[in-house]
Design a protein that fits this description.
The complex is a heterodimer of chains A (364) and B (321). Chain A is built from eleven helices and 16 strands. With 364 residues, chain A is an alpha/beta fold. In chain A, strands 4-5-8-9-10-11-12-16 form an eight-stranded mixed β-sheet. Chain A has a five-stranded mixed β-sheet with strand order 2-1-3-7-6, with no helix packed on it. In chain A, strands 13-15-14 form a three-stranded antiparallel β-sheet. In chain A, a hairpin with a 5-residue loop joins strand 14 and strand 15. The N and C termini of chain A lie far apart (40 Å). Chain B is 56% helix and 10% strand. Classes of the chains: A alpha/beta (364), B alpha+beta (321). Bound molecules: iron/sulfur cluster.
């Protein structure tokens, strides 16, 4: 796959002299650069536009967990929004007023906030990711952000970085001193779902090849089967991708695998119907979850998770497997235990990092 | 606009491009015209050597039928643009009060054309009574191209919202479902529910809507002479729920079976969480006074020893046991 090449870059004057702006100018020599006071919200989606703004809110956020389901306790480094991979199920489609690719030019402030957080909480393990409001690596060939973040985390004692992507843009990761502090992660799905719901993303072959290459470079790996979709004969599709994954990479490099059945804000249904009229994903057996989001009826979720869990555990019983945003009943029924038995989901994931990556506040 | 008397034979009666058809007979207007004649002058535009009507089709037709040679009209200036005419036309139409569905649909189509992909002003939508939801104006506009649906809407037996939803369906299935709704005589929200269910089931099952509507199970309910429309509606809704949410409905049925086999005392009711989501199960005790409460508690304690109780919580246990 090819990285996006926006032909128009609109930069807010506040960040027009930033390092990010300079990198973009170097990497996009034929793009038109415009400096404006403030980038205005708009409702028109234009994949050729890249906006660079000064973000004025918190750049380090908490995972938007809710009370009724276990949350992973992940923190998010908020470096930009939107994505041009245009997956049918993507929640970012609901951000109607900011439909274009947007990066935050105040990278220095972001790192400052991050340093403060790590210094103020030296006795905690910080699991930090970037792929919540955009794809972690989609724009990396243009921004080179990984070349800043990976070395930054390499120098920390109590933090790991997870870069989650559906691309194979790992070029910038080659040759970086990562010090075993970065997890490169891929969202995976069955071949059928990949083709119908995420056709602009890297093929599964490309993703697995990129993962293998990262493992060769010493990076740790993670995989997210999210969103799991229920469709006719899903078992065959998911068994196939799991087998391909477990053939492609050494499970001992995998820090965790997460499973998350498709869930969405109710308003997304109409958006999917309009933007992706051929997609059938809004017509599953969804009910309103305890967090107000639509999710598959629990018995379907349990079936999806048990099926996946069984294959993964057969391959490597020690692998850390977790469910994204699920409650005790589903955990217990699908995986035979609940995070409470391991001190909570966050503690479970911290332990996976400590065991596998040997990173933690207690270690040197 | 200038006022003048226009010779009715100079009007191009065929050109109705500015018409917003109501698909209804306006008896009140005719009574008023018969009594007082034309009070409010129609709007006219000169095009080529002829005049075309912008507003007042019924009034001018009445005058012609009556044998009048001319009528007092307001004439648009020659240089006015069609969008300016439309804006005034719509504004006036909206001020006239409640538009019927056909007029609403036509107005929606005009607004879409007028604003050409841009969002139509909210004030228009409010006056039209169309919520400012993405895609809704388009659905209403589509309805304007479906005279057969608009005719049916005129009968008042079909809810606007249901008609709007089927405006994009292929003609045969649209008419079939509207015929079904007419027969059921159910509320607007149930009509919409039925339409949505049919639409979603057909997409889920990869089955043409018409094929689904002709399903023998549905037809049997529809033609059952022993059921009145209220009962038919309920039985059909249940059927559509089972088809749309087969796993959930199956689980609900299993729960009912399990509760039945548990032979719960009348004082106790077990309530699962909505859609069985989460751990929020409840047990209700019904009693009157302390003695009743003691009895109910004792019965509840007795339940704890029953292994059948586990079945209720386990979706698979019935099959395994
Ligand atoms: S890759 Fe992720 S962020 Fe991009 S469109 Fe797909 S789901 Fe959305």
């Amino acid at each position: 796959m090819h990285a996006p090449k926006p032909s128009r870059v609109i930069i807010e004057s506040d960040v027009s002299n930033s390092e990010l702006a300079a990198t973009l100018r170097a990497n996009l020599p034929s793009a038109r650069f415009e400096i404006v006071d403030r980038v205005q919200d708009s409702t028109r989606r234009d994949p050729n536009i890249l906006e660079v703004v000064r973000f004025r809110g918190r750049l380090l956020k908490s995972c938007p967990g809710t009370q009724n389901y276990y949350c992973c306790g992940y923190r998010i480094l908020h470096f930009g929004t939107q994505c041009t991979l245009d997956c049918t199920y993507c929640i970012l489609q609901a951000y109607l007023n900011q439909p274009n690719l947007r990066l935050f030019g105040n990278t220095g402030e972001m790192l400052g906030e991050l340093s403060t957080e790590l210094e103020q909480n030296p006795n905690r393990l910080h699991r930090i990711g970037t792929g919540e409001f955009t794809d972690s690596l989609l724009l990396d060939p243009l921004t080179g952000l990984s070349k800043i973040l990976v070395p930054f985390f390499a120098g920390t004692r109590n933090a790991v970085l997870e870069l989650k992507t559906k691309t194979n843009f790992i070029g910038n990761l080659v040759g970086l001193d990562h010090n075993g502090r970065t997890i490169t992660a891929w969202s995976l799905n069955s071949e059928q779902v990949r083709r119908s719901e995420e056709p602009k993303s890297a093929t599964l072959e490309e993703r697995l090849a990129a993962a293998r290459r990262c493992a060769d470079l010493g990076y740790y790996l993670a995989f997210h089967f999210d969103p799991l979709l229920e469709y006719p004969d899903w078992q065959t599709g998911y068994a196939e991708i799991l087998n391909r994954l477990l053939d492609a990479v050494d499970p001992s490099r995998i820090v965790w695998i997460s499973l998350g059945a498709f869930r969405f804000m109710p308003e997304l249904k109409q958006i999917i119907r309009e933007r992706h009229a051929r997609s059938k994903i809004p017509y599953g057996e969804f009910i309103r979850g305890l967090d107000g989001k639509m999710r598959y009826f629990r018995d379907i979720r349990v079936e999806l998770y048990s099926f996946m869990g069984e294959i993964i555990r057969k391959a490597d019983p020690s692998l850390c497997l977790y469910l994204c945003m699920e409650g005790k009943d589903v955990w217990t029924e699908a995986l035979g235990f609940s995070p409470d038995e391991q001190g909570g989901l966050a503690a479970m994931l911290d332990k996976a990092v400590e065991d596998k990556m040997k990173v933690g506040p207690g270690r040197g | 606009m200038d006022f003048g008397r226009i010779c009715l034979s100079d009007i191009d009666w065929e050109d109705r491009c500015f018409e917003i058809r109501s698909f209804g007979h306006n008896a009140r207007l005719h009574a008023s015209l018969d009594r007082l004649g034309i009070i409010d002058p129609p709007w006219i535009l000169r095009r080529g050597g002829k005049y075309i009507v912008v507003d007042g089709f019924k009034r001018l037709a009445w005058a012609r039928e009556k044998g009048d040679r001319d009528a007092g009209c307001l004439l648009f200036p020659a240089n006015v643009s069609p969008s300016e005419i439309w804006e005034r036309r719509i504004e006036r139409k909206l001020f006239e009060g409640d538009l019927n569905p056909a007029e609403k649909a036509r107005t929606a189509a005009i607004l879409l054309e007028l604003y050409n992909g841009e969002e139509a002003p909210g004030a228009f939508l409010i006056a039209l009574g169309i919520p400012n939801r993405k895609g809704l104006l388009e659905k209403w506009a589509r309805l304007s191209r479906r005279p057969e649906i608009l005719e049916l809407l005129g009968s008042g037996e079909i809810a606007d919202r249901a008609a709007v939803e089927v405006s994009g369906w292929e003609p045969e299935s649209a008419m079939k479902v509207l015929g079904l709704l007419k027969l059921l005589r159910c509320s607007a929200s149930i009509q919409v529910e039925i339409v949505e269910r049919i639409d979603e089931i057909s997409i889920r099952e990869n089955r043409p809507r018409l094929d689904l509507l002709n399903d023998p199970k549905i037809q049997e309910i529809v033609s059952d002479k022993n059921k009145n429309s209220r009962v038919k509606t309920q039985v059909l809704r249940d059927l559509f729920s089972r088809m749309r949410f087969p796993r959930l409905v199956e689980r609900e049925r299993k729960f009912m079976r399990d509760v039945k086999s548990l032979a719960l005392p009348r004082s106790i009711r077990i309530v699962p969480p909505p859609a069985f989501e989460g751990n929020g199960w409840k047990m209700e005790l019904h009693f009157s006074g302390p003695a009743g409460l003691r009895d109910a508690l004792a019965e509840a304690v007795g339940l704890a020893g029953k292994s059948l109780l586990d079945r209720i919580f386990d979706p698979d246990l019935e099959e395994r046991s």
